[in-house]
Amino acid sequence: MDSFRFFVPGEPITEGSMRTFKSGQRTVVTHDRGPELDAWRIKVRRAAEAAAEAAYWEPRYDGPVEVWTEFRLPRPKSVPPSKRPLPFVKPDLDKLQRAVGDALAPYKRPGVLRDDSRIVGWSAVKLYADDAHPAGVMVRVSKAQDHVTGQSLTSLDDVRNTPAGATIIDADGLTFSRGYGGWDMHGNEYTYADHEIDLPATLVVVDGI
Fold it and tell me: Could you tell me if 54 and 4 are in contact, meaning their C-beta atoms sit under 8 angstroms apart?
């Protein structure tokens, strides 16, 4: 298969700042929350390997991939949804992503990717956990195609060359999905031609999955 997904329960841990110190003649490098980070990366790595194996994913895949992640953070009891609906506070989203990326391609160990530099597209959000969505991270890894999620489409050729199943949002904020017969605007029964889509547009879904 060209993609796999998995969920890892628990509080997502960031790949935090590093600090160094001398131990005799050696320089030791450690991370903030080191033991917790190690345990989290192991959980992510094992879940990724199990999902990849079930999807017949090539071990240590050496091609370009896209990664989609949804982090669900525990909500502090002192912060009700009415006060802060979204977690626009620490931890930083990019540091949460970094821990997942390192778990997909662990240093000096087999992983689902040969190296995390193979990631050419990231899509990530962080939200609070709730009764329907427990704390943890949902991850989807897919082989990258000629187009990457989030790519800007600035010409008619860009739009025409998107694959069937793609979804885009045009300059007016309208959402279109590409079927085999043309572009369909969401919530509308009519089919639109590519030249009726206002540019620039943004590719939000590449393969319809």
Answer: yes
